[in-house]
Amino acid sequence: MTRNSDFVDVDPWETQDKEDTAEAYYNQPLRQKHRILADENLRLKRLLRENSITWSPIATAHIHAVKHGNSGRMTRRRSLAAAPTNPYLPTEVLLRILKYALTAPLSIFDPLSKLRPDTVTAEEKARGNQIAIHFLATCRAMHTEGTRILWGHNSFTFTSPEALRHFAELDLNHRKGIKGVTFRIIAQFYDDKKRRHRLHHTYHQSLRKDHQLPVNMRVNEQTYARGGFRCYSWSQIVDFLAALRPPFDPKHDRKQIRPRLLPALESLHIDLVNFTADKLPTFGNDMHNMASHELGCSLNELYVTGLPIDDPGVKASAELTGLLRDEGLYMTGVPAYVQTKRGVLPLSGHPICARVIRAYKSLRVGSLGASTVPIDDELSDSEDTDFDALDGSGLDAHHSHIPTMPAAPAQEGHPTSHREDKVIWKRVPISRNSGERRWVEFCRSSGYPIEPPADKNGNDDDEEDEDSISICPCCGEPHPGTFLDQLLDEAD
């Protein structure tokens, strides 16, 4: 007999289980039918080969060689006699040639998936093949080494959630070495009426006039289904992040945690295209659930371009910071691309607006995995109230997780500072498309870069006021230290 004290009175909350979602995707009818047909095809080829029945010119030539005694197997003496007189290349040289042939100078778009022409620029479309993929078909050794080089020495860009989800077909041994990827998320607009929608020239300062917004036409259904002008924008970001969840693997032990799609992912670059200000609707809690809970505190660096400067854009920026670990680097910039009737067009780059997420925690109490900094009595007495206000800031979407997630690793080799316990150093790209980086000093309490002191005598000023915060190159305004300050300013 069960006692009433054995029951736990907890109300459930509505969500979609990730285990069921991953298993449902793995067992889709078309995917399952494809696997069955592939296995059947291999069995039929084996039967045809055993009964000397040809099905291709290559197999015919092979069977003909076997019948005439030339099976392709040669003894060591015959192989030495038939060896060419050309010099033999050492294995190290062959591996260097293989690495050069399979390493692309630029990012590879949608690997393992068919590329959509409307998601790339004209230059990227005319780029052609960047790698000599046929090296993998040379022999088994070349295939093994070449596959490792292909997935370990290239960068990848995904333009759709389906392409990212299909990347799970790659073996985990190759996926677990990828540390950085790029998402190009293009907002899609739909309408069931022939109307012209405007893309305002304020989207980017290089646009001199308004452009027509690309809209996918749909049939006007005479039903109660909601139609009209609609978009697929913020939900697309959620779908991209959802594709990073652990894919289903029937061979994995159910008692163990399944690894994510990219277990070693540390850096994420998101290019938002056609996310126009004052046009996109607001969104619900799906992004918060995905960024701060499902994938929370998993990245060391996040770079987002194209966020609109409006209420939904500010909210999305706050939610996306939940992806970063404590002391992680968060960078934003103006749009990098625009999609018009002529296709995707690149836009000029600008300086990067960077800040460090939740770096103030080490000033209060050293948490697990975070860098502990000695706190002097003056700092703990005078500035404890400011740190309490920062704890729970709306600009940093973060919840207290149990156990505490480790902080982003500290970057070594930075210059010396006049106050090491109040600042943190990060290497920030000098421009949007540049791989070169420079050291930038950030304030731990506010998270924003610190400008050099104006005092010519070299006296440092310990007051963290608005003048010590650098101007944001995106909007031209100094950002407040907390989201609460911003709300109070708007109320005044």
Average residue-wise pLDDT: 80
Helical coverage, percent range = 25-40%
Which structural class is indicated by helix and strand composition?
A: alpha/beta
Radius of gyration: 28 Å
DSSP summary, beta strand count: 16
Strand order of the largest sheet: 1-2-3-9-10-11-14
Largest sheet: 7 strands, mixed
Distance between the termini: 62 Å
What is the number of helical segments per DSSP (H or I, 4+ residues)?
16
3D shape:
globular
Instruction: Estimate the strand proportion.
Output: 15-25%
Low-confidence stretches: 366-394, 460-471, 475-488
Give your account of this protein's structure:
The chain is globular, with a radius of gyration of 28 Å. The protein is built from 16 helices and 16 strands. The protein has a domain at 13-85. It is α/β, with parallel strands linked by helices and 492 residues long. The chain is 29% helix and 15% strand. The relative contact order is 0.08. A hairpin with a 2-residue loop joins strand 12 and strand 13 (343-346). Helix 10 packs parallel to helix 11 (286-294). A seven-stranded mixed beta sheet has the order 1-2-3-9-10-11-14. Mean pLDDT is 80; it is low at 366-394, 460-471 and 475-488. The longest helix is centred in the first third of the chain and has 22 residues, at 29-50. It has helices spanning 18-26, 29-50, 57-67, 76-81, 91-102, 122-125, 140-152, 161-166, 172-175, 234-242, 286-294, 311-320, 361-364, 377-382, 384-390, 483-491; strands at 108-109, 156-158, 180-186, 188-191, 198-199, 211-212, 216-217, 230-232, 267-273, 299-305, 324-333, 337-340, 343-346, 353-357, 423-429, 437-443.
